[in-house]
Amino acid sequence: MNPSIARDTPPPQTQEEATALHKQRLRAELLARRKALPEEDKAAADALIGQRVLHWCAAQAIHSLAVYQPIRREPDLSAAYNALAARGVHLCLPVVVDKQAALEFRAWQPGDMLEKDGMGTLVPPPGTAVVRPQALLIPCVGFNEKNYRLGYGGGFYDRTLAGESPPLSVGVCYHFGRADFAAQAHDMPLDALLTDGAVDAKSLP
Question: pLDDT for 53-79, tens place per residue?
Fold first, then answer.
């Protein structure tokens, strides 16, 4: 065998590497589809997801919830946040304190001041009260039939849910985000998954 050919032959992929590559490609496809979603369709989907979030919170008697500020055309659930605050639910927002750590959560209500962090995400400023929410509202790029989430690959929510006595977790995603992919060792399943499509019975209480 020609030695140069042997040196240029890539080693076989492990199952973990193959899964990671598949998720990377799937992430790119779903983000492109989300980017192309017409504004009118997006607004209707966001409103429906928001109503399902309100139903889930009421059914689970949620009194404190970590929400999110949308980036990269994630569902905009600001109307639901306003409704939750009006019901007396205490809201908070996630903050990245270290790229290898779990998320920190800072108290927030609609109208409170926010500032951009080092990753360009709007967060409550330093000095805001740090809280421990009862549940997390988590945006998803995609999800599979077992309620495993496809995110951006940073692992922040997985590390947060891997801790002791983790909060409840409810993912939100557009219906076209349902996909076939295997979970990796670090992935944590969500307790519920809400979309703008047909509601899966196991995703609601």
Answer: 999 999 999 999 999 999 999 999 999
**What CATH code is carried by the domain that includes residue 22?**
3.40.50.10420
Structure tokens at 82: 């306003």
Residue 140 lies in a domain: yes
- Per the CB < 8 A criterion, the answer to whether 125 and 9 are in contact is no
* Token pair listed for 95: 């903050």
Q: Does a structural domain hold residue 9?
A: no
Between CA 16 and CA 90 the distance in angstroms is 39
Kindly give the pairing relationship between strand 122-123 and strand 115-116. Answer: antiparallel
Residue 119 domain flag = yes
- Cα separation, 56 vs 37, whole angstroms: 25
Nearest to 57 by CA among 49, 65, 46, 68: 65
Q: Determine contact, residues 94/135, Cβ cutoff 8 Å.
A: no
- Give the residue numbers spanning the domain of 67: 14-203
Looking at the structure of the chain, the number of domains it has is 1
Residue 107 lies in a domain: yes
Average pLDDT (30-41) is: 97
Name the E strands within the chain: 64-66, 90-95, 104-107, 115-116, 122-123, 135-139, 142-143, 149-150, 168-172, 192-194
